Amino acid sequence: MRSPVSGAARWAGALVLAVIVMVAVFNSGSTADGVAVDQQAGATATKRTEFGPLTGSDVDLLVKVRQAGLWETPTGQQMEQRATNGVVRDVGRRIAAEHIELDAIVRRTADQLGATLPSQPSAQQQGWMAEISAQNGAEYDRTAVNLLRQAHGKVLPVIAQVRSGTRNELVRDFATTAAQFVTRHHEYLESTGLVDFEALPEPPAPAAAPASAASAAAGTGGAAPVLTANGGTAAASGGFDGVLTAVREVSLSSWLAAVLAFVAVLGGGALLDMLLRDRTRTTPAGPTPAASYPPQRPFPAPPRPPAPPRIHPARRRPAPQRRPGGPAVFGLLVIGVLALPPLLEGAVSPPPQPSTSAAVAAGFAALDPAPEHVLALVAEKKNEPSDDEKSDDDKDEGKNGDNQNDDNQNDDKAAGDQAEGDDAREALNQALAARQAEQGGAEDRNAENENDDRNGDNNQNGDNQNDKQDGNGQNENDQDENAADDDFPGRENAAPPALGDFADIGEVNQLVSDPTPDANASTGSFVSECGTPDPALRNSDNWIAAPGKVNGAQHMHDYIGSAATDSSTEAGDLLVSETTCELDNRSTFFWPVLRDTSQVGPDDNQDGGGLDGNVGEILEPAQVVMQFLGNPTEPVSPMPQLLRVITGDAKAVTNGPDNVRAQWTCRGFEDRATTQYPLCPQGSRLLRVLDFPSCWDGENLDSEDHRSHMAFADEDSGACPQDTVAVPQLRMILAYDQPGGRNFALDGFPDQQHHPATDHGDFVNGMPDELMDAVVECLNEGLQC
């Protein structure tokens, strides 16, 4: 008997069932990841970022936290001034300070994600501020505490909801950090004893559908923003576009689960079809088995029927072979179409750059973004300039220099050729050696001139003695000048940088790479907000390397952090000084200034300035980032207070490249660095990046050479040497609006001739223990603070 259902209908049913099961698994997987397809009008589009998909709910969280800081920071500051209760004043101070810190975090996060944040509180939040300001005395305290507590209570569920569902790594880290801040603020406000818990809103019923991020927090006054392809907002999209978005964004585990479910149901359909096939079978011919009953009486044989006509026996036709086609091929085609997007995405997506880890990227993300035309240059694979073009450039440069510069240019050009052969360290070594050899020849010539001068002076001793007796004091002035030369050596070798000290950033091939972190890595990032340098603190002292000596550096330093900066400073002065940093961070950070050599500076005839060969107008850094990073192989431990750390070598021309740590690059070209001055495209800021050692001997705050108590981690693995302790690593990022052409140079000792490899920096830890513990926790927990 044949099945009443045709084979095509059975296959169609199995296929429909497989699709239904696949979609169910698909949706459950995507919902588990926090991005279920929303077919309603309030659904939001999704934007791709390097940290994962960014949904409207993710952006809404950033908006709410930003707006919370915009009204709670001034409210907390007002509470510190107007509250009558001492506890309330202290709570206001804490909330204001921590919201300043959290606001910096949310702004950095939004910059990295390309999200736009509001610049003022919502209308409802402004109403709360007005309501609090209208009160006085004890009523002021009660109103401020309760309104702040209610607002924090509303935003905490939103943070938890986004934290549990987002698939964006950066948003997840931000939500974790924000939850810690908000929870602490709950505790601060409740510690006042003024919170009216009966007036707090009821929590949602367990069976109720979770509220959307747009309606869960107070003060936004509208639905969640909807992202467009360029990161802006647009009307919600649904229908087929929403389905395609979900298909593109679903996780790999959901794809695999859906495909396996589809194949399983399709296989079940094939088995069912096999069972429902035609069950009629022809009984094979053969002897009938003998009956077990007693034999019956014999009957006479029936008459034999006439023989049938002779015919050829019919050949049994072979069963038709099932060709691979039909529903099976269609099912495989559907599977292929469903699996194609993630496979293509993995195939065409460029591999991640070695220097774009989340922690390292967080430091550069704190800078203003590069203009679009600069980013286009970065993306474009420019061809190497031809030899003719290089020759033309060399000719043009030679017209502006003297013979000495031409010699320097040839030496540095040879070094540059080796650097292009992936041997930048050897090239730098040869360039520094060539510079030192030139100085040796100059010193020999100066010695001959000095002997001639001495002979001439001996011939005039009688006249000088008479002048001294007459009270002219000329000989005393000469002695003062000689003493000054002894105190500040090398001035006779001062010279501007060579033309070969500069390199087009587009021709720099030295890429920056970071060790791959392992399972125990501390992958977080902490940025210390300290503003930009105050020119009033600028001087040419260095109380770490030359304590008590005025003009001990023979070049000017920029300072941020502690205001204790001059030669008379002692380490303990930091802990009681004023500071430009937030959160009572009294650390000191300083580095040599950069100058526009086409201008004339005010210190052109002063120590540390023109007298030491440092000429030009000092350039103010447009932005400064003081970032602390973790260790790729292990958690970090706190730095002790007053630990002194230096990086780079201010006398690299004399000492060689062993301690060189200079990294010069341009905004938009952060994946490459050079020890030459980079020539950046118009609109791209010049960047100085200085990485400090991060492996401490565990005992000494300083050492005789100011280096031995600290060590750099291994360049390949990131591991600290044995018998050292991994501590937070300081990274300085200094951004400048570059003057046109080669009209800039680094301040340095005069005999170093402004070589860019002499870039260096100094740091002394003046963080309170509580702040250092918070930095360590941030790094070890993988947060970006």
UniProtKB/TrEMBL annotation:
Record field: compositional bias (Acidic residues): 477-487
InterPro entries assigned to the protein according to its UniProt record, in alphabetical order: DUF1996, DUF4142
Bias-annotated ranges (Pro residues): 295-311
Membrane-spanning residues: 255-276, 325-344
Entry keyword annotation includes Transmembrane helix: yes
Name of the protein in question: Uncharacterized protein DUF4142
Domain DUF4142: 57-189
Record keywords: Membrane, Transmembrane, Transmembrane helix
Biased composition (Basic and acidic residues): 442-456
Region (Disordered): 282-325, 379-501
Residue ranges with Low complexity bias: 282-291
Domain DUF1996: 544-766
